[in-house]
Amino acid sequence: MKTLIYSAAALSLTSFALANDSDWSAFDLEAEALASSLQDDNTTPSISGFIDTYFNNTGDNLPTPGGAGAPGAAADTQGFTVPNARVRMNGSNTGYGYNVEYDFVGARLLDANVSFMLGDINATMGAFRAPLSASGLRDTEDVFFVNRSIIGNATSARQAGAMLNGVFDGKLNWAVAVQNGVDGTVDEHLISARGTYDFMGDGHGADSTEGSYGGTDDMNGTVGVSFADDGGVMGAGLGGGFFGVDATVSTGQYWVSLEIADFEAGYTGTGSEGAGLNAITGAADQSPMVLAGGWMLTPDEWELGLRYTDTDNGAADTTMIDIAANHYNNGHDVKWTIQFTQIDSDPGGPDGSAISAGVTVSF
What we know:
It contains five helices and 16 strands. It is mainly beta. The chain has a single domain, classed as Porin (Beta Barrel). Strands 1-2-3-4-5-6-7-8-9-10-11-12-13-14-15-16 form a 16-stranded antiparallel β-barrel. A hairpin with a 2-residue loop joins strand 2 and strand 3 (96-103). The termini are far apart.
C-alpha cells in the first residue's frame, strides 16, 4: 500500500510542476471572507449553526452510523440519535477576525480562534483543524454521506496552535500549521502542511463541499498533498507521521474523489466528529484508501452517492461500502439523507450492515 501512496504522491507532485487553484479548503474561503470583513473596523457577530438527527438501525457487530462507538459495542440496535447540535459565531474587530464553534451534544468547544492578515497571507491562532485531508477540513453539514471518510474522521480534530495559509496565482493553495500535539503544552509539537492545485476549472471548492450540488457545467479538478509529524510521539519512540494524497473531479452532474493516506503506528489523530463506522482501527502503519463518487439524478434536488473504503487494518482486512441518497430542500443547509452501509471483515473483525436516515437543518 505504501508503494501505491508514494506513487500517487509522485504523480500529484508532477501535476504541481506541470501546471501552475481555487478549489481550496475552508481555509481559502475563510481567508477571502476575512479580507473582505476586516475592511470594517467592527462587525456585528454573525450567528449560524446546524442540527442533524437520524434514525439508525445497525446489525451484528457494528456501532451506530455517524455516532461514537467501536465495533462490537452493540448488536442489532435501532433508535434515534442527534449527532450534532452546533452554534458558530464569527465577526471582526479593528482588523482581527474571530471564530467560535460549540457542540451542545458533546458539550465541547471546537473552534476558538482569531485571524488577521499579514500582507496577502492569512494568519490564525487558537483552536482549529490541522490542514490535512479534504474530508477532514469540510464542515460536518457539508459532507455528502452521513459521516466523513475514515481518513477525514482521523484528521478532523481541533488543537490549539498557529497557522499561515494563502493562495498563489489563483490556483495553488497552501497552509502550514504548528499545534500542541499529543504531549499538549510540553515542548514537542504537531507540525502539518497541505497544498492543493486546481488542475481543471476553478476547483468548485472540493475541500469545502462534497458532491455535485452547486457545481457548474464545466469540469473542475483538484489534487492535494498533506503531511503531519508529531514530535511528542516521535519522542516516545513511535512513528507519529501522516502522509495523504487526495483528488476530486466534479461537475454539476457528477463527481469522483480518491483519498489515500499512511498513518504511522503512533499517529493519534482521533477525529472530533465521533468514531462511528469510520474509526481508524489503530493497526500499525495503517494505509487506508477511500474511493467515492456521485450522480445528480435531478438537478440540485436528488443526488446518489457510493463510497468504497479499504481500511488496511491488518488481519481483519475490513472493507466498507456506503450507498447514500440526498434530497436537497436548500442545498446542504436543509437536506434529507438515507444511507446503507455494508461492512465485511475476516474472522475477528466487524461484519454486518447498517441503515441511517435523517435530516440536517442549518441556520
